[in-house]
Design brief:
CATH class: Alpha Beta
Structural class: alpha/beta
Number of domains: 1
Order of helices and strands: HEEHEEHEEHEHHH
Number of helices: 7
CATH superfamily: UDP-galactose 4-epimerase, domain 1
Helix content: 40-55%
Distance between the termini: 39 Å
Radius of gyration: 17 Å
Largest sheet: 3 strands, mixed
Strand content: 5-15%
CATH architecture: Alpha-Beta Complex
Shape: elongated
Length: about 180
């Protein structure tokens, strides 16, 4: 998958540079808290360790609590994708890392405890999956936001805001 993404990004950059297209390749942070159900993606646990416990379900955390992640909420990513469609041609550098926030899995779980109580936190059990951890640990846990922010893209402010947004907009069974 990474090779395909890199090849597509190179094509967008090259074709934009040559003037064939007005292109912009966006690199997205891991999206959290994604609504729906867990899937087989290595990143699926990032949303699951928040989404499932808040909805009364148990889930497994397959990585160390010290693992650092680069994340953004679905609403912020949607906003930034919409903004990207309105930007003028970027010129030579037509790849942009969309802004996000950097958190450890442990910080996420502590924020879950604060938002949903100890019962929610207790619904997350740890079962290391070396394959998942190896993949996710290879992703950047922190990225410089300056260029993207200067272009008008936005970042979530705090992880607890991301959880609250999920609870308001996407949580199943909300009233």
């Amino acid at each position: 998958m990474a090779r395909r993404k890199a090849a597509c990004e190179l094509l967008v950059n090259d074709y934009t540079r040559k003037g064939y297209v007005d292109g912009l390749a966006l690199r997205l942070p891991t999206i959290c808290v994604r609504p729906g159900k867990p899937n087989r993606a290595a990143s699926s646990f990032v949303s699951a360790i928040i989404r499932e416990p808040l909805q009364g379900e148990t889930t497994i955390c397959p990585v160390s609590e010290s693992l650092r992640l680069w994340i953004s909420s679905p609403a912020t990513v949607i906003h930034n994708l919409s903004l990207a469609a309105t930007l003028p041609a970027p010129g030579e550098a037509s790849s942009i890392n969309l802004p996000g926030i950097s958190v450890t899995v442990g910080e996420m779980l502590e924020t879950l405890r604060q938002a949903g109580g100890q019962a929610a936190r207790n619904r997350v059990t740890h079962q290391r999956d070396e394959g998942v951890e190896k993949i996710v640990a290879s992703w950047p846990g922190r990225i410089d936001n300056q260029r993207a922010l200067a272009l008008g893209f936005v970042a979530d402010k705090r992880f607890d805001d991301i959880i609250e947004r999920f609870r308001q907009d996407d949580m199943e069974g909300r009233s």
